[in-house]
Each structure stands twice: as C-alpha cells, then as structure tokens.
Amino acid sequence: MEQGKDPMSDTRPGLGKAEGIPLPKSTCNEWDRIQCFQAKSDDLLLCTYPKSGTTWIQEIVDMIQQEGDLEKCQRASVHHRHPFIEWARPFQTLAGVDQADMMPSPRTLKTHLPVQLLPKSFWTANCKFIYMARNPKDCLVSYFHFQRMNKTLPHPGTWEEYLEIFMAGKVAWGSWYNHVKDWWKAKDTYRVLYLFYEDIKKDPKHEIQKIMQFIGKQLDMATLDKIVHHTSFEVMKQNPMVNRANAPLSVMDQSISPFMRKGMVGDWKNHFTVAQNEWFDEDYRKKMSDTDLMFTMEF
C-alpha cells in the first residue's frame, strides 16, 4: 500500500471543479442551482475559508442574535441553524440552497466560496457579510486533520504531501491565498466585516462588540460576558450542538481526530519542520506580495 494512503481512500469521493476552483463533486453537481440562489437584502452571510473558525463565528453570531439565550441557541445543531449554501450530498434530502429557501427572513447563511464563485444575487442584494480569516499555517494543520477524519473529502495523504497540495491550492475551495486576498478587496466595495481568528482569541470581548455593532445589536455587559464564556473553545468543545458529536461515522470519524481539535494559535509549530517552515515562508511572501493583508502566526 502506498505510504500515507488510507485503505478506505478509494471509497472517498474526489474533487470536481467549478470555474477552475476545486470543490466537492456533490457541490459541482448542484452548481447551476447554487449559482441561481436568490439572496435577500436582509441576509447575513458568514464567509470563511475552510478550517478558519467557521463554527466559532456561527456560534458567536447566533448568541448575539438570540441575545445570549442559551436555550434558543440549543434549538438545533449549528449546521442546521445556518444553511451552508453550497452544501450538497448525494444521499441528503435537502441541499443547502433548499434549506435556505425554506428559512424565514432575516436569514443567517454560511459559505466557504471564494468571491468569484459566490451567487451574484448576494452582491446585487447588497447583503451584509462577515468574513473570518485565519493564519495559513494553523489553517493548513487544521484542514489536514479534518481531511483525515472527514470521509466526504479526499484523504490528505502524508503531512509532507498535504503541505504541497495546500500550498498549490489543490484542496477543496481552492487557494487559501486568493480566498483571503479577494475577500479583503471586497470589503472596499461591499458591506464586509473582515475578522481575524487570532484577534478573537486574543481579545474576544472587543471583537464580539465589533460584530454586535455590525449586526446592529445592543447588549449589556453581562450578556456580552456570557457570550464570551459560552463561545470559548473549552465550552464549545463540550456542546453537542456545535461539536458534531452526532455526526454519523460514515461522514466523520472523530476517533481519528476530533471535529473541535485544539482551537489554538501556533499549533503549526508542532507539525512544520524548520525546512518546511522556511519553504512555506518564502512561498507565502511571494503570494502575499500584492496585498497589505497581514496575519499573526503566533502569540
């Protein structure tokens, strides 16, 4: 058996492409329907590159919208509260666009799509967008472990192989570099609140206040403190409505790696060799030379 290959990898679906960007094949099969999705002006779209704190920003936003009411935030799993617009699975009754269409307004929706693949109606409806970015090294590490356990994505191979695949943008949802840079540009034209994973880690209260302001919610300090507490990694890891504890084994095998793994800044140092880090840094400098976007790699 080839090194790094999962014996089960043959049964895993491969990736397709939409306009040159790698995406899950099931998403590509629904592409026309996804592109025709009708956004509404009061939609809030939560946007992230995979493994950049998506579940975290979803829970923060939901707790703000529910004004800290824990019971309301437990009404359904986080992935049912915010339809994932490009979500499509062959055996699933409802695609993400169907879930969104059935939802009453105002809707909070989620996507991993890069700017150029977003259904055009989101731009024309002038929706609000919250974009959450995470430094590429931690994002890569998280994505590697996620692909090890998530059977709906190709097996990542060895760490060395995956490092190369990620840097080349040959993973689902494409290049991290283009994704973060293009959304950074979009904020100059559209109503985009651009957030950083590392900033929320460092000063959650300040960043959550920023989100509240953007959403148009005013909450007292006691409620804010409650939201900070309940959206901490330690508390969320124990919350079955966000930790995917109920995901079927056919989708996620959390004995390989938990869905909520470490949620820290700088875990990449436990994975990169010195040579790999130097190689990555050089490549990063080239790819980020055309932007003023800056990332915190460690505290």
Automatic annotation (TrEMBL):
Alphabetical list of InterPro entries matching this protein: P-loop_NTPase, Sulfotransferase_dom
E.C. number(s) listed in UniProt: 2.8.2.-
Record's keyword annotation contains Transferase: yes
Residues covered by the Sulfotransferase domain: 42-291
The UniProt record lists the keyword Plastid: no
Alphabetized UniProt keyword annotations: Cytoplasm, Transferase
Chain residue ranges for the region called Disordered: 1-21
Pfam families: Sulfotransfer_1 (PF00685)
Annotated GO MF terms: sulfotransferase activity
Subcellular locations according to the entry: Cytoplasm
GO cellular component terms, A-Z: cytoplasm
Family: Belongs to the sulfotransferase 1 family.
Protein name: Sulfotransferase
Organism: Pantherophis guttatus
